[in-house]
């Protein structure tokens, strides 16, 4: 009786495990967007295909624009397609997870830059009996002007207004090729600075859509992985648009539009004159530049007054004393055998 009970209990446990497995993992249950399985970024999901049921849809909420990094593997090759929820007939990106003979499994690390919104990831088993595992991580773009599937700055009419001399962050995604920013300038030269983690284009347009300057190309440096460029552009007073667009790949970027620095000098300090060098006033700017002016003449010691002159015991020598001058580091003595001091016969420096 105990043996029969044990067998029945084991059968129940096995049946429960199999039923639970079928309800959560097998394909067919998620083969349309309406039946898509919820997937949270930063977690791992697993699925199984058969030759008759080889499609899984995963529903993914992207909380803000950013980059999703995937690690995908499986027993056979398969595809991952990405569709936005507001246009499920148009994929924005895809990757093929190919079988690697050296690993003995399908394996690939891939990524996608997506603006905020809800997406469907279609996992296509490609008519193979197959299992798959997908894990992910998410890096936010920290956009200065958040974009989504419903909100964007992809045309001049939606351009985000920016200020001069301020740095902004943005992202170009798999479904976001262009960003526009409007700015107002006085007449003169402006400097556009841009940096990205992929090669990128940028140019200046009028508010009516004509290209004013550009199209400049910031090329990604192979050693640093950074694309950066600065361009000067002369503009009449008015409002314009900066257009930033993908070269070939989605990316994060930052930029600023700067007016050339106008020095504003303030009095900083004085360098006093010495007995051997001139003094001057120093003026500095907040940028670190400086200049000097109002030079002061070398400081004069003034006349030295003799206190006494007398013969010394040693033949042909004299003894003299005089007032000491502050700052002096030596004295010159001139003497003559002529009482009118018309012929100076010698001089000597006394320390």
- The helix content is under 10%
- Rounded Rg: 41 Å
CATH architecture of the largest domain: Sandwich
Major beta sheet summary: 5 strands, mixed
Question: Outline, from the CA principal axes?
Answer: elongated
Distance between the terminal alpha carbons, to the nearest Å? 124 Å
SSE order, one letter for each helix or strand: HEEEEEEEEEEEEEEEEEEEEEEEEEE
Structural summary, described in words:
The protein is mainly beta. It folds into four domains: about 120 residues, Jelly Rolls; about 100 residues, Jelly Rolls; about 30 residues, no CATH class; about 45 residues, no CATH class. Helix content is about 5%, strand content about 50%. The strands form seven sheets. The chain has a five-stranded mixed beta sheet, with no helix packed on it. The protein has a five-stranded antiparallel beta sheet with strand order 2-10-4-8-7, with no helix packed on it. Strand 20 and strand 21 form a beta hairpin. The protein is elongated, with a radius of gyration of 41 Å. The chain starts with a helix and ends with a strand.
Please describe the topology of this protein.
Blueprint: H1 2-25, E1 37-39, E2 44-49, E3 55-62, E4 66-74, E5 78-84, E6 93-97, E7 99-100, E8 105-114, E9 117-124, E10 130-140, E11 160-161, E12 168-172, E13 178-185, E14 188-196, E15 200-206, E16 211-218, E17 227-235, E18 238-246, E19 251-258, E20 266-271, E21 279-284, E22 290-296, E23 306-311, E24 318-322, E25 331-335, E26 346-350
Parallel strand pairs: 1-3, 11-13
Antiparallel strand pairs: 2-10, 3-9, 4-8, 4-10, 5-6, 5-9, 7-8, 12-19, 13-18, 14-17, 14-19, 15-16, 15-18, 20-21, 21-22, 23-24, 25-26
């Amino acid at each position: 009786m105990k043996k029969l009970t044990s067998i029945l209990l084991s059968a129940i446990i096995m049946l429960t495990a199999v039923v639970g497995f079928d309800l959560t993992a097998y394909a067919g249950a998620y083969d349309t967007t309406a039946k898509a399985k919820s997937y949270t970024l930063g977690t791992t999901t697993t699925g199984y295909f058969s030759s008759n049921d080889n499609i899984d849809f995963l529903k993914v909420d992207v909380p803000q624009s950013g980059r999703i990094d995937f690690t995908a593997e499986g027993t056979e090759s398969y595809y991952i397609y990405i569709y936005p929820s507001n246009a499920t007939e148009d994929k924005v990106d895809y990757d093929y997870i190919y079988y690697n003979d050296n690993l003995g499994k399908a394996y690939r690390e891939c990524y996608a830059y997506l603006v905020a919104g809800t997406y469907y990831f279609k996992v296509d088993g490609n008519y193979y009996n197959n299992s798959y595992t997908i894990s992910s991580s998410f890096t936010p773009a920290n956009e200065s002007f958040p974009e989504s599937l419903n909100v964007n700055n992809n045309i001049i009419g939606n351009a985000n207004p920016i200020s001069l001399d301020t740095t902004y962050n943005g992202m170009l995604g798999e479904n976001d090729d262009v960003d526009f920013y409007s700015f107002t300038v006085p007449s003169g030269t402006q400097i556009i600075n841009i940096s990205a983690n992929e090669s990128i284009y940028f140019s200046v347009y009028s508010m009516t859509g004509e290209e004013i300057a550009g199209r400049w190309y910031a090329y990604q440096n192979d050693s640093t992985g950074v694309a950066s460029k600065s361009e000067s552009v002369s503009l009449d007073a008015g409002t314009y648009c900066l257009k930033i667009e993908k070269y070939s790949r989605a990316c994060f970027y930052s930029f600023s539009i700067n007016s050339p620095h106008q020095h504003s000098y303030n009095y900083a300090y004085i360098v006093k004159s010495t007995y051997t060098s001139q003094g001057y006033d120093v003026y500095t700017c907040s940028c670190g530049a400086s200049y000097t002016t109002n030079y002061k003449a070398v400081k004069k010691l003034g006349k030295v007054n003799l206190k006494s002159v007398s013969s010394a015991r040693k033949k042909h020598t004299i003894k003299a004393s005089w007032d000491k001058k502050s700052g002096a580091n030596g004295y010159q003595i001139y003497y003559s055998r002529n009482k009118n001091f018309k012929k100076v016969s010698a001089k000597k420096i006394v320390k």
